[in-house]
Write a structure and sequence with these properties.
The protein is mainly alpha-helical. The chain has 9 helices and 3 strands; from the N terminus they run H-E-H-H-E-E-H-H-H-H-H-H. Strands 1-3-2 form a 3-stranded mixed β-sheet.
Length: 209
């Protein structure tokens, strides 16, 4: 099996982030601008209501319960399950499917799934931003990611595992890393400063009582 091209997945994710108008978190993939791609993001429930196609048929009786992409002519339809219990999991599913489209995956295999997962992580919680937060002294845990980036616990743990593996891997550093950090720097500075402030208040409260 060919190795996943994590560099390309990250590069494509950052190219998309740079074109956005808002540089703050959490990121809603449903609002991303992808001018080069013709696609529609819609819940399975809404599509079922519009077309009168039973939900069971759209999900193949649960085989595609989270979501999937369907191509019709030149349009890609990204379906997601609006009944998924956490918003973070919905966002991950949609970002993952966008990854398949942007990375031009035409088959389902482990390599493509890993690339789409890495793309999703770089859209929702960019590695270079997490590295900058760590440099600033933030404790980037799965709970921190779930709270600040509004992604699911499972996705947060995946991001942590990925970060620990590639944080010093220069092969995955792109020419866009510094640009992404610069664009999101107001958020990084504001969010981390607020964390320090509230941590200090909590420490004072504990000392007082």
């Amino acid at each position: 099996m060919d190795k996943p091209n994590f560099y390309r997945a990250k590069l494509k994710a950052y190219e998309i982030l740079i074109k956005q108008q808002s540089f703050s978190f959490p990121i809603d993939p449903r609002k991303l601008k992808l001018d080069s791609y013709n696609f529609v993001i819609i819940s399975l429930q809404e599509y079922s209501q519009i077309t009168n196609i039973p939900l069971e048929k759209l999900t193949s009786n649960g085989s595609f319960n989270d979501g999937y992409t369907y191509f019709n002519n030149n349009t890609a339809y990204i379906f997601y399950n609006n009944d998924i219990e956490t918003e973070g999991r919905k966002m991950w599913t949609i970002s993952h499917e966008i990854g398949h489209i942007v990375l031009e995956h035409t088959t389902q295999c482990e390599k493509n799934e890993q690339e789409a997962n890495f793309f999703a992580s770089q859209i929702l919680a960019p590695q270079c931003v997490l590295k900058q937060l760590i440099k600033n002294g933030a404790k980037v845990t799965s709970n921190y990611l779930s709270s600040k980036f509004k992604i699911s616990k499972e996705a947060s743990e995946n991001c942590i595992n990925t970060l620990s593996k590639v944080i010093d891997n220069e092969k995955i550093v792109t020419e866009y890393d510094d640009i992404i950090i610069s664009l999101f720097n107001p958020y990084i500075f504001r969010d981390y400063s607020l964390d320090l402030y509230f941590d200090e208040l909590e420490n004072r409260r504990k000392t007082f009582y």
